[in-house]
Every structure is written in C-alpha cells, then in structure tokens.
TrEMBL record:
Reactions catalysed: (5Z,8Z,11Z,14Z)-eicosatetraenoyl-CoA + H2O = (5Z,8Z,11Z,14Z)-eicosatetraenoate + CoA + H(+); decanoyl-CoA + H2O = decanoate + CoA + H(+); dodecanoyl-CoA + H2O = dodecanoate + CoA + H(+); tetradecanoyl-CoA + H2O = tetradecanoate + CoA + H(+)
This enzyme's EC code(s): 3.1.2.2
UniProt name for this protein: Acyl-coenzyme A thioesterase THEM4
BP term (GO), one: fatty acid metabolic process
Organism ancestry: Eukaryota, Sar, Stramenopiles, Ochrophyta, Bacillariophyta
Length: 401
C-alpha cells in the first residue's frame, strides 16, 4: 500500500514519534524497550471506531503470527495475539531493545522462512529463533565512560572474556568505546583480566578497541585509539571560566551538571586512513543536564542544546588545531553559523554524549558536524552542522567599536 495512504493524517509520523519517545525514555531511565508494530487490529473487544469494528472482523480462527523486523509486513493482527506478544516481550530478555512487526499468519506468506503457524503463546519462540533478523537499533557504537561507571560486566558470547570496570577507574581521564558491548576492550595492548578485574588505567595508557564499526576495514580489524580528557580541572575554574556560559552561570546542580570534553587520539600510525577519514571524529563530550533548563516541562530547551553543540565544536577546533598544527596566531575562531535539527526530546536530568566531526576546511572556514545522542548511541536527540571562521582578533575588536 502506498506510504501516502498508510500515512493519512500523519498516522505513521505520530507512531514514529511515539516510538522515538519510548526509546528516548528507555535510554534516559536505563530500562529496555520492545516495540511491536502490529498490523490492523482485528477481533474483540471492538472498541475501535473503524471498519473492522463495524463488521466485527474476527481475524480467522488461527492464532498464528508472522513476525519480521522492520515494518515491511502488511496485514491484520488479532488483538489478543498482540496482547500476548506484549506479555511475551515483557518476560523475554531476547525481546529487549527489539523492534518488529507482526500480523496474522497466512500460509501463502512470502516470508515463509520467518513464518510459523503457531499459537500466540509461542510467538516469543519465533523471536528467539530469529534474533538476527530482529532490528536491533544499534546504529552507532556503544560507548562507555570509564570515568564514571561503577563496576560493569559484560560477557562475550564467543570467548567468554569479561570486562569489568572497577571503582578504581573513577576519575580516569580516558574513555573507551566499542561497537559491541560484549566485545572486550584491552588496555596496554593486553586483554583485561576476567571477572572483577581491578586494574587501573595508568596515565597516558593507550586503549585498544576492537571491532570499531565505521573503521573496521583496517588490515587486522583492530583500531587503536582512545579518548583523552581535555578539561579535567573544570572544578578548579579560572576566572575566564566563571564568565563562560557553560562553566559559569549555567554550571551547577539542576543546570549543566557535567561537560567533560574528550579528544580522540589515534594511536595506530599504520593506518593513516583513520586520521584522514572524512568526516573524522575529533571530540566527544560526556554531559549531564539538570532539570532547570527546560522549554516545555521536562524537555531541555533547544537553545541550550544549541549552546552545548556550539561549545563542543569550539573544543573540536582546539583538537583540530593540535592535530593539524593550524597556525592561528593573532586569530580567533568564531561560529559563523550553526544549524540544529532536533530529532527526539532531550529529557531534563539526562546524560548524553556529543560527538563532533570535522567535515572540511576551506581556507579560514572550517565545517563541523555533530550529534547529541544517548550514551549507547541508540537515540539521536539532535544533529548539528556549523561553519566556524578564523577571524583576525584585531578586526573583531574594530567591529565592536
Ligand atoms: C571554554 C573556555 C575554557 C578555556 C579553555 C582553554 C582553551 C580552550 C580551548 C578551546 C576553546 C573551547 C571552547 C570555545 C568555546 C566556544 C565556541 C563558541 C564560539 C562562539 O559562539 S563565537 C560567538 C558567535 N559568533 C560571532 O560572534 C561571530 C560574529 N561574526 C563575525 O565576527 C564575522 O561575521 C565572521 C568572523 C564570522 C566573518 O567575518 P570576516 O570579516 O572575518 O570574514 P568574511 O565576512 O570575509 O567571511 C569569511 C568567509 O566566511 C564566509 N562566511 C562568513 N559568515 C558566514 C555565514 N554566516 N554563513 C556562511 N558563510 C559565511 C564568507 O562568505 C567568507 O567566505 P569566502 O572566503 O569563501 O568568500
């Protein structure tokens, strides 16, 4: 059926924003979610005001269902079957962070390999049989702040290595990331020990990260990089910082509660494409916002989000300058333009990261892009792009007069 008809009155748009809100809430509260996209609901109790209610469409005797990831399925779905699937999702860990559609089983279905004419009670078994087909929303890497986490453990499915971050890692100036939470990280090129590892990260310890998604075509599939904290002394603020929007008046409980800037360090010189890649990631900001920065109740004001982006890009310039050895003597970098797209409500009191990428440099003009996303990368709250211009300091002052 054409999208235009399916989306009459913006029905699908509304559903999409509902799903985004669910994901966003799940991210912010640390719980998981399952999103079920049933076909047209048929069968009792006929509470809808639609044709299926008018004609008391029963939906056939079979309780069998077809499930498939994404939203390609089209058909009816019995209400009681859908309710059963909801219960199964609640009880089944395999259904965590999964999005799938379901409709009534039809023997002629083209999706035969994913189809089973079974009772609704066995629907979960279908999910379990086809986990790989389920749409897991891990569109980015999962990253962990090792500076703040208490002990976290992840078991790998294939080699049974566990990664544990002990409280001794608190206040570390480094940050690791991995695209699959079950893959292991290594420190000093040695795999971390098994359960309850208590190692600390030595100063300037490079971390080896496996399985980096966007750069996985390097020769040995291993990328060496880590993130180093840029502003570790933000508690010890300078007078400059006291008048700075983020570290000054907007800093504190209920306001901007954390704004830790990390620069990305590539350590693998054998693979210069990592450095040359465009857009290349320069900076990650680990942040937390309080509950006094809202526009609508409970939702962070878009202007605040723009500020968070602008600042992150300022720091990204600093990283770029260090890497590319840009000569900026007598110059100052300023934002010439900043475009922000707000994708999902960024809830008050949440934690998130901003990732900043360098897109292009043309003379004095530097183009960045950035994402504000949940820490595990599953929800993008906002995206931004900007032009920063290197301007002569004396020229700026002349304009002031
Ligand atoms: C955080 C503090 C702690 C300190 C720690 C120590 C170290 C910190 C390290 C890092 C720093 C960290 C954070 C930094 C903090 C945050 C960053 C915030 C930055 C800001 O929040 S800063 C305030 C807002 N910002 C302004 O206050 C700018 C006002 N503005 C102007 O001052 C001029 O407008 C200017 C300079 C932009 C241009 O003026 P100009 O005379 O120099 O140059 P001109 O006009 O010739 O433009 C040259 C080429 O840019 C193109 N161009 C210009 N503007 C454009 C636009 N809007 N759109 C598209 N293209 C544009 C032209 O078309 C031309 O292009 P082309 O060369 O191809 O023809």
């Amino acid at each position: 059926m054409p999208f235009l008809i399916l989306n009459l009155f913006g029905v699908l748009d509304a559903k999409r924003s509902g799903e985004d809100a669910v994901k966003s809430y799940a991210m912010n509260s640390g719980c998981s979610y399952s999103i079920i996209r049933p076909g047209r609901l048929v069968g009792g109790p006929y509470t809808n005001l639609d044709l299926a209610t008018l004609f008391q469409v029963e939906g056939g005797a079979s309780n069998g269902v077809t499930v498939q990831s994404g939203d390609a399925l089209l058909g009816d779905c019995k209400r009681d079957v859908c309710a059963e699937a909801v219960l199964q999702c609640l009880e089944n860990r395999e259904c965590e962070d999964v999005v799938f559609s379901m409709h009534r089983f039809r023997a002629s279905s083209a999706t035969a390999s994913m189809t089973a004419g079974v009772s609704a009670a066995a629907a979960a078994a279908i999910f379990l049989s086809y986990p790989a087909r389920m749409e897991r929303d891990h569109h980015h890497d999962v990253q962990y702040s090792i500076s703040r986490e208490t002990i976290q453990q992840h078991t790998t499915s294939n080699n049974n290595i566990m990664t544990a971050w002990s409280s001794s890692l608190l206040d570390s100036n480094y940050w690791l990331r991995s695209n699959i939470p079950t893959k292991c990280e290594a420190v000093n090129n040695k795999k971390m020990d098994t359960v309850n590892n208590n190692k600390t990260f030595a100063s300037n310890t490079p971390a080896t990260v496996y399985g980096e998604e966007e750069e996985s075509n390097s020769a040995n599939g291993r990328i060496n990089y880590y993130y180093k904290r840029m502003n570790p002394n933000d508690v010890d603020r300078t007078s400059l910082m006291e008048s700075h929007a983020i570290f000054g008046p907007l800093w504190g409980e209920g306001l901007i509660e954390r704004y830790h800037v990390y620069k990305r360090i590539n350590t693998n010189n054998e693979h210069p494409q990592i450095v040359l890649q465009s857009p290349r990631e320069l900076t990650v900001v680990d942040l937390k916002v309080g509950k006094k920065l809202n526009g609508h109740d409970g939702i962070i004001h878009g202007g605040i989000i723009s500020l968070l982006f602008d600042e992150a890009m300022g720091w990204a310039y600093e990283c770029l300058q260090q890497q590319d050895q840009i000569d900026s003597s007598g110059m100052i970098i300023v934002t010439a333009n900043l475009t922000v797209n707000f994708r999902a409500p960024f809830l008050a009191g949440s934690e998130a990261v901003i990732r900043v990428y360098h897109n292009e440099t043309k003379g004095r003009k530097i183009y960045f892009s950035a994402r504000l996303e949940s820490k595990d990368g599953r929800v993008v709250f906002a995206e931004a792009s900007s032009l920063f211009v290197l301007a002569r300091k004396d020229k700026l002052r002349m304009k002031e007069r």
